[in-house]
User: Which sequence fits this backbone?
């Protein structure tokens, strides 16, 4: 079931106010995927000799760190509102 919060006539879906245990498991998977990419990008960037490639890997790492942090903040803020 999709939850939409229509504010300012926006059609962008908003996360639900409460999350289920299944939702939390999916969010945990997403966090794990982001951490995996962060680790791989860091590993590749540390030995990379090509400046442009190293910069791209660093940007990739930063993007996934932001995604991870956003997911972490979301789960922390909704932890006490979880539906079982």
Assistant:
């Amino acid at each position: 079931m999709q939850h939409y919060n229509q504010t300012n006539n926006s059609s962008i879906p908003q996360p639900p106010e409460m999350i289920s245990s299944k939702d939390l498991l999916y969010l945990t998977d997403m966090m794990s995927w982001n951490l995996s990419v962060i680790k791989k990008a860091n590993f590749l960037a540390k030995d990379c000799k090509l400046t442009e490639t190293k910069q791209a890997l660093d940007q990739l790492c930063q993007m996934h760190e932001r995604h991870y942090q956003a997911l972490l903040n979301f789960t922390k803020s909704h932890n006490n509102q979880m539906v079982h």
